[in-house]
Specification:
The chain has nine helices and no strands. By secondary structure, the chain is mainly alpha-helical.
Length: 228
């Protein structure tokens, strides 16, 4: 009986395939086509990500290249005679990565570094505009880094109250990229010129809460230099 039942089911399947073989074949072709497109897209994205990362690394090498008036005779050593020359080269490289790979993390990070280069070149208005835009991005880590950059522009352009507001906001809303202690130290550094007593208080707080860490060591060093 079981053999007869199996034979009947198999016969039914064969009849179905004979009747609908064109539709079955079309469905199979569509499935294979969708898989091919999916794989093609995956490998394209991976390729673009790798290219973006490589381009960003090249720009970063320029940014971190040494400034040497008399560079040594070392093969493939990238160096520049002035900081402005180095930052101009890095800025152009970061802008290229940001424009070509804007949809990728490396492209977005390149835009942040381009703003840093603009700041180092004294292009404060352009840097502020970029930091402002990045601070509103959906990338939480990048946004917090951009806010630190924005606060630095406020400090340079004598807008201490605005810088203080940004640092306090970062303390209250820390991220992996900008922990609360980092923002607190930045605020303490800001107070060195405007409110030294408040700076001492913040450094003491940092030291008490972060002994044995780089943040604690920095706070201890700063306290040793300030009148208590």
């Amino acid at each position: 009986m079981k053999q007869d039942e199996f034979s009947a089911r198999l016969g039914g399947m064969m009849d179905f395939y004979s009747t609908h073989k064109q539709r079955v074949a079309l469905a199979a072709m569509v499935g294979v086509g969708a898989l091919a497109v999916g794989l093609g897209l995956y490998f394209y994205i991976r390729s673009q990500q790798n290219r973006a990362a490589a381009a960003f690394a090249t720009a970063l090498n320029s940014y971190h290249a040494p400034v040497l008036t008399s560079p040594p005779d070392i093969p493939n050593l990238e160096s520049y005679k002035t900081s402005n020359e180095k930052n101009e080269k890095a800025l152009a490289a970061f802008n290229s990565v940001a424009q070509e790979y804007s949809s990728y993390a490396a492209g977005r990070l390149a835009r942040y570094y381009a703003a840093i280069c603009q700041r180092e070149l004294g292009k404060y208005a352009e840097a502020e505009q970029e930091f402002q835009a990045l601070s509103r991005s959906g990338d939480e880590k990048l946004a917090s880094l951009a806010k630190v950059g924005l606060a630095s522009i406020y400090e340079i352009t004598d807008r201490s109250a605005e810088a203080e507001k940004v640092y306090k906001e970062l303390e209250e809303n820390p991220t992996e990229a900008v922990p609360a202690v980092t923002a607190r130290i930045a605020r303490a550094n800001l107070y060195l010129q405007t409110d030294p007593a408040q700076a001492v208080s913040l450094y003491q707080q940092v030291l008490e809460e972060n002994r044995g860490t780089p943040a604690g060591d920095y706070a201890e060093m700063m306290l040793a230099q300030l009148p208590q």
